[in-house]
């Protein structure tokens, strides 16, 4: 559904060419008639930013502007529609932005301080269910000073606020076309981003053209983009091979990535670009369940799960084992679960259970969703079941449901153990800890831990230098290991498959793993 120097690793993308012995490719290209077609399996659920807290951000990043954003290579928010932004106090409770001069929306409306205030206030007022209003929990009020200055007054210290403003959910919209009391529903978009949306067919395609009035950091290396939405990865890959699209983003299965990388003769003219992803998968234990509520049971499972085998068998190396809730590439990442439990060990797991008076195999039910995280989810849970039952210490029943039913179930507390995924809103360790703790945990299972919610998170949010909060997040992860209420499993890798004549793929993914279409171009010669 992102940082600092330590994040530079996540910004470095390795290109794995599928053609051996090809000549050097020119990095330069003319912008004349540069049209690029990109395929994805993630289509927008809405065109209105006030309702968007999902994959809709993909399109929005390219047609709207935010005050701050992530230029290529940046790991912290930098001005976009704004000329400058900064906290005006030492406690990170007042954030001031001055707009670039001469900005306007694609319909000609002026972008001024009032339009910015309107855009943000509208999100809070509409408070769309499942929408992004929850991201603005620290916001008290928005103040305008003249035509070009906006001050965000926070109700509590929140140094992550610039990262929140950088999410596509905080896109600027013209008051004249986006009602204050309801979502826009005419199927159109009016923004000030690098592109304008010329045509949109839900579930089929979006046609983007360069916005002639755009003023921002994006250097557009193409003139237009078609985004095609596919129902599945197989037809998307087929379209790539037939050169009906130039690149793919989101939706490649592990099998397809491996096939594209290994079968060079069958995939001549294609390349695969890999980068570390920030999406994670983990198990959630419900403390209200008789078995999951026992710390010894949770610790025994943590002692048994073999992440290396899980990744190798199910994801064929397209994911990485994860030993903390903060993934690799994010400041504050640790290997706390490995440090505490080490390698999988049946003997240690048996001892943990025996010490708690548990000498019979523990019967448990694990739930997963069938249509949210891809076709590999069922094999993943089958492998978890195999591993736990092979120890002789557990008997696991697997159950599944479509996302809507699944979400209702875990929100009601119906599931003893269930699998969840997390796509970060922004690249900061806060976004991998805060959503999962407290009475309103996004897992639907309240997790009250006062040291994290009342001490560690508030103190870290007073620190505007996000590289200086590692201590708080290391301690938070130690608490998560002690409780084993959440068990991290793996973090994903991101792959872009493209024709070998397409350049810029290695620069196109921003720290929010949203594709910046303007980086793609067709090479002049190759």
Q: Which key features would you list for this structure?
A:
twelve-stranded mixed beta sheet; single chain; alpha+beta; Dipeptide-binding Protein, domain 3; 526 residues; 23% strand; globular; 20 strands
Structure commentary:
This is Peptide/nickel transport system substrate-binding protein. β15, α11 (about 375-390) and β16 (about 395-400) form a beta-alpha-beta unit. The chain has a domain at about 275-495: Dipeptide-binding Protein, domain 3, CATH 3.10.105.10. The relative contact order is 0.18. The model is unreliable at about 1-30 (pLDDT under 50). α8 runs antiparallel to α11 (about 375-390) and α13 runs antiparallel to α14. By secondary structure, it is an alpha+beta fold. It has helices at about 10, 55-65, 115-125, 160-165, 235-240, 255-260, 295-305, 305-315, 335-340, 345-355, 375-390, 405-410, 450-460, 470-485, and strands at about 15, 35-40, 70, 80, 80-85, 95-100, 140-145, 150-155, 195-200, 205-210, 225-230, 245-250, 270-285, 320, 360-370, 395-400, 415-420, 485-500, 500-505, 520.
Quick description:
This protein has 14 helices and 20 strands.
User: How many helical stretches?
Assistant: 14
The rounded distance between the terminal residues' Cα atoms is 36 Å
Percent helix, as a range, is 10-25%
Low-confidence stretches: 1-31
Q: What's the architecture of the domain at 277-493, going by CATH?
A: Roll
CATH class of the domain at 277-493: Alpha Beta
Reported by name, the CATH topology of the domain at 277-493 is Dipeptide-binding Protein, domain 3
The radius of gyration over CA amounts to: 24 Å
Give a count of the beta strands, DSSP E runs of length 2 or more: 20
Task: Please identify the structural class as seen in this structure.
Answer: alpha+beta
Shape: globular
Strand content: 15-25%
**What's the CATH H-level superfamily name of the domain at 277-493?**
Dipeptide-binding Protein, Domain 3
């Amino acid at each position: 559904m992102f940082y600092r120097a330590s994040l530079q690793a996540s910004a470095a993308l390795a290109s794995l060419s599928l053609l051996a012995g090809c000549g050097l490719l020119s990095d330069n290209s003319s912008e004349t008639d540069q049209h690029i077609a990109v395929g994805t399996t993630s289509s927008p659920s809405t065109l209105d930013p006030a309702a968007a807290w999902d994959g809709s951000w993909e399109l929005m990043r390219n047609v709207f502007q935010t005050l701050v954003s992530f230029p290529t290579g940046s790991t912290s928010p930098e001005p976009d529609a704004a000329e400058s932004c900064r906290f005006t106090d030492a406690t990170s409770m007042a954030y001031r932005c001055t707009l670039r001069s001469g900005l306007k929306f694609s319909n000609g409306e002026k972008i001024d301080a009032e339009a910015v205030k309107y855009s943000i206030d509208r999100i809070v007022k509409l408070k769309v269910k499942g929408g992004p209003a929850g991201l603005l929990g620290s916001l008290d009020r928005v103040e305008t000073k003249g035509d070009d200055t906006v001050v965000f007054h926070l109700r509590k210290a929140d140094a992550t606020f610039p990262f929140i403003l950088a999410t596509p959910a905080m896109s600027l919209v013209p008051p004249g076309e986006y009602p204050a009391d309801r979502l826009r529903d005419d199927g159109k978009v009016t923004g000030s981003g690098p592109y304008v949306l010329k045509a949109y067919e839900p579930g089929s395609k979006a046609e983007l053209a360069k916005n002639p009035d755009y003023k921002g950091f994006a250097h557009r290396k193409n003139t237009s983009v078609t985004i095609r939405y596919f129902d599945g990865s197989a037809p998307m890959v087929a379209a790539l091979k037939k050169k009906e699209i130039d690149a793919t983003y989101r939706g490649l299965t592990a099998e397809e990535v491996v096939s594209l990388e290994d079968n060079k003769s069958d995939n001549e003219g294609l390349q695969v670009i890999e980068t570390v992803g920030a999406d994670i998968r983990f198990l959630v234990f419900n403390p209200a369940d008789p078995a999951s509520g026992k710390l010894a049971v949770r610790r025994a499972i943590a002692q048994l799960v073999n992440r290396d085998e899980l990744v190798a068998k199910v994801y064929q190396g397209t994911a990485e084992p994860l030993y903390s809730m903060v993934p690799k590439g994010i400041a504050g990442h640790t290997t706390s679960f490995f440090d505490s439990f080490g390698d999988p060990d049946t003997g240690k797991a048996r001892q943990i259970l025996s010490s708690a008076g548990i000498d019979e195999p523990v019967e448990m039910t694990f739930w997963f969703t069938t249509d949210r995280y891809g076709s590999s989810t069922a094999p993943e849970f089958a492998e978890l079941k195999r591993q736990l039952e092979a120890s002789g210490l557990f008997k696991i029943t697997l159950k599944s449901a479509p996302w809507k039913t699944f979400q209702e179930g875990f929100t009601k507390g119906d599931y003893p153990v269930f699998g969840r995924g997390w796509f970060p809103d922004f690249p900061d360790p806060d976004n991998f800890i805060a959503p999962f703790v407290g009475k309103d945990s996004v897992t639907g299972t309240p997790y009250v831990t006062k040291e994290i919610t009342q001490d560690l998170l508030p103190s870290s949010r007073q620190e505007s230098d996000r590289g200086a909060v590692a201590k708080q997040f290391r301690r938070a992860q130690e608490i998560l290991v002690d409780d084993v209420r959440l068990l991290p499993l793996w973090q994903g890798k991101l792959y872009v498959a493209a024709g070998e004549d397409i350049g810029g793929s290695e620069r196109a993914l921003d720290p929010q793993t949203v594709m910046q279409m303007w980086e793609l171009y067709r090479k002049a010669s190759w």
